[in-house]
Amino acid sequence: MIKMFSPIISTIKKAKNIAISFHVSPDGDSIGSSLGLMLALRKIGKNPIIVMKDTTPKFTGFLPHIEEIVNGDINPNVDCLIILDCGNVERVNCGIDRENTNYILINMDHHASNDYYGDINFVDTSYSSMGEIVYKLLEEMNIDIDQEIATCLYTSIITDCGSFKYSNTTKLTHEIAGNLIGTGINFSQIHSLIYDNKELCVVKLAGKVIENMAMYADGRICVLSVTENLVHEYGCDNSDISELVNIGSLINTVEVVVFFKETSDRLKVSLRSQKEYDVKSVAEVYGGGGHIKAAGFTYSGKIKDIEKQLIELISKGFN
């Protein structure tokens, strides 16, 4: 059997205090894979902790031990910092001070745009999610995957491959999901808690987003926007509206969806492709990244400052 994770496993074995973090604006993949890894490391006598600056999305609230995630920066006594699902240092969800700390930084990701910023890097775009990578790591470490870990990893996988409907889904994705189901998790309930558990304010907000929807390039581009004022008006949590980007994908003429989500300090731009359009290349123009069919970036200005130029850039990519 090929040992893919030998440097990572060797570092973990030598470490006692291990911190785990991920990208800003965390999603089901980053939260689920981090919790699964944390619980697994405890089984081998390690002292892992998950650190972040943001808040967790509400839909992840059912995950075991999610209340143990710490809001803050890295403790000086950390021996090893593992960053999951994050392409560059600028988007890491915790403070990193490499000059005044001695921990080893492990960077694990499945995005092609990764900057390989770790002391040890494992980046493989063939995996649908970080949940798959963590599963394979635990498998190589011979750590038993119980129902709590399986719940976390299953959540990670289905949220990043759209419940197996996205093109990043592979034969391995189904095999791992089947093994996780084999632990006895209630996969139907997990799906319901993630996708069929919306607050009324989010549903009402979705109606307003549809009302304000804009179409460009003969219906090939759909632009959806959620301003900070709109979020406050409907009383929603900013962390639970990202999946509204999927509304645009329901339209049969749409090839690219642009979703603007405004916060107090930045604009988050999510891009989705319905066909073969490479939205990752668009995101990279603005310092972002992701996958060919799902990418994004952050922008320091307002929607009106970028919408026109972004639409023009996307339009140039059509045949």
UniProtKB/TrEMBL annotation:
DDH domain sequence ranges: 17-157
Keywords: Hydrolase
UniProt EC number: 3.1.-.-, 3.1.3.7
Keyword Hydrolase: yes
Source organism, top-level taxon: Bacteria
Domain (DHHA1) ranges: 226-315
Coiled coil: none
GO MF annotation terms: 3'(2'),5'-bisphosphate nucleotidase activity; nucleic acid binding
Top-tier EC class: hydrolase
One Pfam family from the record: DHHA1
PANTHER family: BIFUNCTIONAL OLIGORIBONUCLEASE AND PAP PHOSPHATASE NRNA
Protein name per its UniProtKB record: Bifunctional oligoribonuclease and PAP phosphatase NrnA
